[in-house]
Design a protein that fits this description.
The chain is an alpha/beta fold and 479 residues long. It has 20 helices and 12 strands. The strands form 4 sheets. It has a 5-stranded parallel β-sheet. It has a 3-stranded antiparallel β-sheet with strand order 10-12-11. The protein has a two-stranded antiparallel sheet with strand order 2-3.
Length: 479
Amino acid sequence: MTSPAEPTGSTTPVTDTPPPTITTVAELRASGHRYRTVKQELRENLVRRLRSGEPSMPGMVGLQDTVIPEVERAVLAGHDFVLLGERGQGKTRLMRTLVGLLDEWTPVIDGSELNEHPFHPISVGSRARSAELGDELPVGWLHRDHRYAEKLATPDTSVGDLIGDVDPTKIAEGRHLGDPETVHYGLLPRGNRGIFGINELPDLAERIQVGLFNVLEERDIQIRGYALRLPLDLLVVASANPEDYTNRGRIITPLKDRFGAEIRTHYPTDTDADVDLVRQEAQLVAVVPEHLLRVIARLTHELRGSTSIDQRSGVSARFSIAASEAVAAAALRRGALVGEDDPVARIGDLAPALTTLRGKLEFEMGEEGREDEVLEHLLRMATAGVFRELTRGVDLSGLTERFADDLIVETGTLVPGRQLLDQIGTVRGLSALLDAAGINEDSVTPGQVAAAVEFALEGLYLSRRLSKESAGGNTIYGS
């Protein structure tokens, strides 16, 4: 998934715009600044993007016509919402992408641990400072990357983690137990004036889920019976997997009722979207040609439709990303061992890479011991499908004619591209094959030509126009 800046782990905001120079409430008021809640801010900025034709949530591949409109409606309605879908469908990515709808810089009371707006202090300490300093109340500026907080819900998460608890250190300093200033705020209050994401919400113990009731409905918090009311200003977004409702845990009914929307996510519905996703997310250390990316995308779709795979668990988008990175690594390894300066991944690199990706798949119980066989079968189907799609109308007789005189071509994970091409020799109609494989002839390299030729050889074998044998870890194609 190139990823946006991760707001949760960043200490230095990624921005080209410096913060405003306003430093006091008087200056902020004189500038004409208008206080808006987080949901008003998100709504107005989203409407502005929609009117200008900009993508509202860039980078969300394959969801533009389905999930994104539902999220847009939830944001416009001011609803907290749950994203419900299998693993690897981009739920966390979508939650983090919402940050882009916030203002780049927002004013806060300087020194406030709850990011309080200078016009709207909510804690006892900030209200006291505001009353004492008046127009001289100091103003700081918070970048939107720092207005997103995220928590992975785990069974050991406590109310103190999310909401807050009494801070014994502050009591030891001399404050009395009923003083609101003795409270150590949890993640939710500290996410005030921003977006708070909860991953895997059903894993949160039911008694902890109850602690979210007031946050989602009354927009305040309760801590150990304190007479404390903090009108929090935030958008709460949660994620969950469908099987969690029955297997590991559940979202309790009163909490589900407090979310304004439940939005189902899904995997990309076509191979083009999967290819786009891999291009966007994969960190490739060598060239992976277009036809090979399409084979990986088709394989992922075959896995998602196979009765041998546990579809309740799903086949994550991370599978195709990892497969692309694995074949690129295989090409780089070949280049280092045999001296190729510009290594290019080939179709023969994919089958060995799949053995390391089995951990990303959940097979049905009846397939125990047949996992490799299932993967090999689906890989053949994917390769044959992409071969038929890309070479439809392409004359490959020039390649098959080379085998008429009992030509034998040996390839493998450590066979250099030039060595493969030397075995083939001159091939009539090679430019049409390169074009079908998505290779630009103007900047073609021997490695790219070898990748296209090996793909064609495998496709001709799968269409029963060539023979194929394995010997010493290499593959031999013949007539």
